[in-house]
């Protein structure tokens, strides 16, 4: 099946190379600011707010910054520059760029686009949840702050400090009951999907509609929307930070966040967490950086842009920790419990811990609106920029079909519609379990690490790190530091292989919501999602070798095997 798809894409790619004056212009960024904001919107997302602060606390506080910075220097920045420069040099998306610069490894492009497609299906469900919470935040009394709602059970207990000391084992909080009974209507088993929750389905449809109109005109519309979606979250983060540090108990929360524990450096899990955080938060191996870079002018200084964006990304993660943990410290003090009892990561932070903290503040509706608007904007630009990268990559493969008349708009509509229909599975009572399976397997850390190794080998050894460095010099007028060539050849693949090995050694079955262990069929489905992208690497390489005449040495000397500078500039 995958081989058939790859063959069809290759045929269209070759047939689409002939020039056609009726084709719509591919487009470029109107200014450098649009490029910087678009990339910032893509890489700075929910993981910066709800994953990095938790990992920092969990893995030794300030000590976690040691492996984090090491992975950033050895893997994050070199691969970030590689992908951005590759797109700018070839002026093609994720698939076309690899097909032109290193055809044997073009499976990297197909694999990355498959991962984007998977992420588009499940990532937007988070925004549907956030929109539901945002609408609920305009009520006179926040519905998750008390137990007087129709969905509350007799076991529900409020947040009063006096109630915390005599809670029974079966007691639940109003915020958990709102999340599980009102928002999700969560089933007890992954085997019971149930019917679609029409309110969440409407929220999902609304968010997909917004995404469609953000992307439908390509770089012209995307470049304008990011001025709002990429900057507004910083305004909200600043508001929440100022409010958070002014709360009683904030200092205790910040101390928990940064308190160093040097013994944690000996734990391999700490290094794995640091590596996967870099890959997730920098959008590496998803093809989006290549697509966004392809809209740049040929002589744009992508080298300096790389450093600016990487600094912005990591700084945002670090500062977000102060905003989050200052509020968690306040909540722990109000409840009279230890901070460790209220710290959560992922959706648990966004939809349980933080809403609970907000409900204890003066003017809770205001802070709830600010928080969920920030979540929406952080996720929205990541979603539609990923969608733009996917559509552009397909457009580069089918230029004569898509880049004329309304071909792009129709393709985008079809992608949004299919992703929306699949996403309906995640707004059922058992949808949270499906979401967690998608989240864990479709864009897993192991997959990203494997693609990173292949990218480094393709550029560092097959194409040549020196040659790629010269290509960058042709664009910006000077060569990158020699450390980048060293990373592409040795350091990056070595670090990725080591982390990949650790991830396999410490692999354990996925635990879903409420402690439910994923059944065998769910694990099989998850690994199928993983293989649906990773398998395209060897399949394409085999297909390419079988259909290219001559021996391997002759293939490497083929003029179509590598790209020349004058070919790009034409």
Automatic annotation (TrEMBL):
Where is this protein found? Membrane
Which cystines does this chain contain? 147-156
The top of its lineage is: Eukaryota, Metazoa, Chordata, Craniata, Vertebrata
**UniProt-recorded name of the protein:** Transporter
Q: Which Pfam families match?
A: SNF
Q: Which family does it belong to?
A: Belongs to the sodium:neurotransmitter symporter (SNF) (TC 2.A.22) family.
What UniProt keywords apply to this chain's record, in alphabetical order? Answer: Disulfide bond, Membrane, Metal-binding, Sodium, Symport, Transmembrane, Transmembrane helix, Transport
Q: InterPro entries under this entry?
A: Na/ntran_symport, SNS_sf
**Molecular function terms in GO for this entry?**
gamma-aminobutyric acid:sodium:chloride symporter activity; metal ion binding
Indicate the transmembrane segments per the record.
29-50, 62-82, 88-108, 120-139, 196-215, 235-258, 278-298, 310-332, 366-390, 410-434, 446-465, 486-508, 520-543
What is the topology of this protein in the membrane according to its UniProt annotation? Answer: Multi-pass membrane protein
